[in-house]
């Protein structure tokens, strides 16, 4: 029986010593210590096995038929209201790919660096690059010139595509740069012109080298929240696998009439896989925001009757904290997904209390797993298990590994989550040591996340193993304390980090964002937490801050807070 198939009672009977004994409820095989997905992909959603297939060809082949594509809206610009149909998107991708090939001589294996905020042009750029067999590498527009130069050198970029306001950062790199949109400078080349000026006869040559599933499609840089950012090598096969899973999950819960809102950055795997590629395979409409803005999000939901949002925990927390009076603005919402960072049970419960008509579902994935891992197939499942990230997606296997013994653990036991699937990265760019530390010889990805499975195969992420605070020999999970802090009515946001201590080793310190007008004190915060956790988990110090530093994906940048805590301690001494 292949990975991802559903097991029934007859399958559980022993058919020979070589047959696994997989529990029908949890998916756990005690003989191997492996958790198997309890879902399967039916024939329309089988991952294509042909090696001669690339990401763009696969996505474009899933567009609506010719007649429907001319009228079906693929993208809407939230600022200008401009609409792009599936037919227009298809033509733009082909035209840009041809122009990049003929006019700029971009070839298979060349690295193209993209530095731009979200736009309705972003998916066109990505799909055109993939069409050529060129390699996409993306960056956060907020990155500094030094950070951008490092990524350009590390990735070996031959061409850059940048938003006009970001192009100056690429000047010192010496990489040829084209702009995403027109400016007053007639000497500059832009993507819009390349699309418009492409001659109909200038298509891609059919006899040239074509990308395959085994070729590198993208080099995406991990956020570096706990260490140096590394280039994650993802293949066309990785993307085709995740797109297939997304198509399966979206089609199982949505319809072609659904409208999605995109403010998740497309330079991040979450935004790229979901909005830059995957949703086009389901024929839905996406409203694109250039960046997240709370008020603009509410306006877009109301104006375009958005039913689906892919979000991160800070956005969900903001909805819980701020919009009691704005519920009518959100009446069209039906589903909100959460990913990229942990969503606490407390925040999830409060969201469902305030917005009972909205399904809230949390998922789990990493850049190294092409954004995939776990998923809730229904809102009712998620509601019944508010602290869980769902079950393994089809084609996924998992282990829960004891850090000290290296043994695989059964349901109910905490350990490091290991994943194996066709979406797992090839490795880190030019970093064999880091790759070997992350991926085992038999293909298991060590996620670095502490987790456990329950008896029904639902996974619960406890925290990052490297972020656990060691207090007097006990392990304290910052995420648990943050969830307690966020339940306080006068706390808008919070983060917990370790502070070195001579006696205890480390103590938990909380950074807290107070609500406007609140006079909450350090002692009140400490006592509030102390009444809800074991003594060894208590917060020992509190510092009030105007905003918690976070990555574009909503992950707390703990290393910045740890550095700040050291500076505060030094200044006091």
UniProtKB/TrEMBL annotation:
It holds the Pfam family AMP-binding_C. It comes from the Eukaryota. The keyword Nucleotide-binding applies. Transmembrane segments: none annotated. InterPro entries: AMP-bd_C, AMP-bd_C_sf, AMP-binding_CS, AMP-dep_synth/lig_dom, ANL_N_sf. Keywords: ATP-binding, Ligase, Nucleotide-binding. Its cofactor is Mg(2+). GO terms for molecular function: ATP binding; CoA-ligase activity. Belongs to the ATP-dependent AMP-binding enzyme family. This is Uncharacterized protein.
């Amino acid at each position: 029986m292949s990975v991802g198939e559903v097991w029934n009672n007859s399958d559980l009977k022993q058919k020979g010593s070589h047959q696994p004994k997989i529990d029908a409820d949890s998916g756990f095989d005690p003989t191997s210590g492996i958790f198997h997905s309890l879902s399967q992909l039916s024939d329309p959603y089988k991952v294509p096995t042909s090696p001669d297939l690339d990401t763009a060809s696969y996505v474009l082949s899933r567009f609506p038929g010719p007649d429907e594509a001319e009228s079906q809206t693929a993208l809407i610009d939230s600022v200008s209201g401009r609409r792009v149909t599936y037919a227009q998107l298809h033509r733009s991708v082909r035209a840009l790919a041809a122009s990049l090939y003929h006019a700029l001589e971009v070839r298979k294996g060349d690295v193209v660096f993209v530095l731009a905020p979200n736009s309705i042009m972003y998916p066109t750029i990505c799909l055109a690059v993939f069409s050529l067999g060129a390699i996409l590498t993306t960056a956060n527009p907020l990155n500094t010139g030094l950070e951008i130069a490092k990524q350009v050198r590390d990735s070996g970029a031959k061409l850059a595509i940048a938003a006009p306001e970001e192009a100056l950062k690429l000047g010192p790199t010496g990489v040829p740069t084209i702009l995403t949109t027109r400016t007053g400078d007639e000497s500059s080349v832009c993507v819009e012109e390349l699309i418009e000026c492409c001659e109909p006869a200038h298509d891609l040559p059919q006899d040239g080298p074509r990308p395959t599933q085994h070729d590198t499609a993208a080099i995406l840089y991990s956020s570096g929240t706990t260490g140096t950012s590394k280039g994650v090598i993802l293949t066309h096969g990785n993307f085709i696998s995740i797109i297939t899973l997304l198509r399966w999950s979206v089609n199982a819960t949505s319809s072609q009439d659904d409208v999605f809102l995109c403010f998740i950055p497309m330079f991040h795997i979450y935004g790229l896989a979901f909005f830059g590629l995957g949703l086009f395979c389901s024929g839905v409409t996406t409203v694109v925001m250039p960046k997240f803005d709370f008020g603009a999000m509410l306006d877009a939901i109301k104006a375009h009757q958005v039913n689906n949002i892919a979000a991160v925990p800070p956005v969900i927390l903001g909805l819980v904290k701020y919009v009691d009076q704005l519920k009518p603005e959100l009446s069209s919402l039906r589903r909100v997904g959460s990913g990229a960072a942990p969503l606490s049970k407390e925040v999830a419960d409060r969201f469902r209390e305030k917005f009972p008509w909205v399904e809230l579902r949390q998922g789990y994935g990493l850049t190294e797993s092409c954004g995939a891992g776990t998923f809730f197939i229904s809102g009712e499942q998620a509601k019944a298990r508010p602290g869980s990230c769902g079950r393994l997606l089809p084609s996924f296997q998992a282990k829960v590994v004891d850090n000290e013994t290296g043994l695989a653990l059964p349901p109910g036991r905490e350990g490091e989550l290991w994943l194996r699937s066709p979406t797992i990265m090839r490795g880190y760019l030019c970093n064999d040591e880091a790759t070997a530390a992350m991926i085992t010889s038999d293909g298991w990805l060590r996620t670095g996340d502490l987790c456990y499975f329950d008896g029904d195969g639902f996974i619960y992420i406890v925290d990052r193993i490297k972020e656990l605070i060691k207090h007097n020999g006990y392990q304290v999970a910052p995420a648990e304390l943050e969830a307690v802090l966020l339940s306080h009515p006068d706390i808008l946001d919070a983060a917990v980090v370790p502070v070195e201590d001579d006696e205890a080793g480390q103590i938990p310190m909380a950074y807290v964002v107070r609500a406007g007008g609140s006079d909450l004190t350090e002692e009140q915060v400490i006592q509030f937490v102390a009444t809800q956790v074991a003594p060894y988990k208590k917060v020992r110090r509190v510092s009030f801050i105007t905003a918690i530093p976070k990555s574009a994906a909503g992950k707390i940048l703990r290393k910045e807070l740890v550095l700040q805590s050291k500076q505060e301690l030094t200044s006091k001494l």
